[in-house]
Structures are given as C-alpha cells and as structure tokens.
Amino acid sequence: MKKLAKIWKQRQLHWMVLPGVAFMIVFNYIPIYGIIIAFKNYTIVDTISSAPWVGLANFKIILEDTYFWEAVRNTLGISLLKLGLGFMIPIILAIMIFEMKDGHFKKFVQTVSYIPHFFSWIVLGGMLISWLSTNGFFNQVLMSVGLMDKGVNHLLDPHKYWWIAVLSDLWKEVGWGTILYLAGMSRIDPTFYEAARIDGATKLQQIRKITLPLLTPIISLNLILNVSGILGSNLDQTLVLMNSQNQSKSEVINSFVYRMGLAQGDFSYATAVGLGISVISVILLVITDRVTRNLNNGKSVIL
Fold first, then answer.
1. Which residues span the membrane (predicted)?
2. What is the pLDDT of residues 75-108, one digit of tens each?
3. What is the C-alpha to C-alpha distance for residues 177 and 34, in angstroms, rounded to an integer?
4. CA angle centred on 48, ends 45 and 54, rounded to 5°
5. What is the domain partition of the chain in residue ranges?
6. What CATH topology corresponds to 58-296?
7. Closest by Cα among 88, 228, 69, 274 to 166
8. Which long-range contacts (CB under 8 A, 24 or more apart) does 253-257 make?
9. What are the beta bridge partners of residue 8?
10. How many CA within 13 A on the CB side of residue 240?
11. What is the dihedral of CA 126, 129, 135, 136, to 10 degrees?
12. What is the pTM of this model?
C-alpha cells in the first residue's frame, strides 16, 4: 500500500514518463517478434505467421556466403582502425583543450572541432566526393607541393577506402567525442593539481597521475560502447561513399544487410545476419564490461 501511495503521490511524473515508455514498447519491443523470420522463408506475399519454417537454413547460407565474409572483413578492418584512432584522439584533444587558458582561442578550438558533427553524411560525403575527385581540392594541394603529377579519383581506389572512411569519421566525430571527457575534467577538484604543483609534478605527471585516473570510469564506458559496436560500421557514411569501384573494400555488414533486405527483398536472410551480429555484439559488450571492471576496482560502469 505504501508503494501505491508513493506512486499516486508522484503520478504527474509517471504521466510524463508514459509517452516514452509507450514509444519504447511500440518501436523497440513489439518489433522483436519479427526476429522469427530469420528462421523462416519469408517473402513479401507472406505474413510472418504464414511463412514456412526453415530452421537454421538461413544461418547455414550465411556461413557459405563469400560476400558476407567480405563484408565482415571490411567491417572489422574499418572498425578496428576507428577504435584505435577514434578512441584515443578524443581523450588527447580533450586534455589539450582542458589545459588551455580560458579565452577566445579555446572557444574557437572547441567550436571548430564540434561543427562537423552537426552536418549529415549527405553533406560531408558530398564534400569528400568533390575534394577527392580528379580535379578536387585534395589533388590540387598535392600537385601544388609536388607530391603528385596528375590528379586521380581517390574514391575509385578500393585500397584507399578504409583510410578515407576512418579519417573522415574521425574528422566528423572527434570534437564531439571530447564533451564527456571535458565534463569529467571540469569536476576534478583543482586542489589536486595545486598540491601536485607544490610537490614539483610536471604537467605530464599531473595528467598521468590525476587526470587520467579520475577519468577512468568515463574512459571505460566509452571503451565498452566502442567495442560492443565494433560490428556496426556507419551505414550513412558507407552508402554515401561506396561506389561500384570500391565496393570490395567498402561493403560493411550494415550495408550488406540493407542491400540484401530492402534492395533485394531477401528479408529472412537479412534478418538472420542482423540477429547473428546482435548476439555477437552483446557477447562483446559483456566481455568488455568484465575486462573494464579491473580498471574500476571491480565495479562495473554499466551493470
């Protein structure tokens, strides 16, 4: 009765939460029922319940599909490069911004680094396609300094695509990735740094002994999210930058699922791929959480 009385007392707050709960049920939980088509031979003329069961046949096809494994290779290659660069550089940039004296230059650096995040990949992709074309800005710069004799279209070279995808994603998101770290550093007690300076600690020693240890929970959380999403490469970026010439290196799992499901209408196969990747992602999430417990004195930052 006490719990019911407390709920009734806070009924205005519960009413405010109800639309969000309803949204999650309708768009996040009810669609889970559709996962069963991964075990069926579903076509556009069937309903989910009437489609015939095929068991694990779709998953067997996945294991024998060379195009799927090509997409897995590209996804892992691009994601691991993004993880290696995109995880560390925001931390370094955040520390550099934090150590700047307050002023116009600090605000300018923050603003310039944040701006690309607010542009869609349609806009940024169009810019990259123009810059990397035969007569684009990138080739003009390289030819002006004598590094190239004639321009080439870099997006048509599949061997360059991974680095184009990684560096363009870094350009778009590195500034935005500093926000959590800057917020965490702003909460560090300044007396820690004052005591360290009195003891003769250099700036690098202060960063290593004070800043980084106190940022460990945030760093651990970002690491968990990055590792768990390692099989989910950026679909928007891929659809904008992929072409028939670089597809062997640019096709990732998300674009493969999109192409097989929506473009070719093989819904059961696409769902099976998506379900398998989701299961592996959950496993990676749990493993990374267990590993990061060691950085937080045995405490989990998510569970």
1. 12-39, 76-98, 118-141, 212-232, 267-287
2. 999 999 988 888 889 999 999 998 888 788 888 8
3. 34
4. 95
5. 58-296
6. MetI-like fold (1.10.3720)
7. 88
8. 253/68, 253/71, 253/72, 253/75, 253/277, 254/75, 255/71, 256/67, 256/68, 256/71
9. none
10. 19
11. 70
12. 0.82
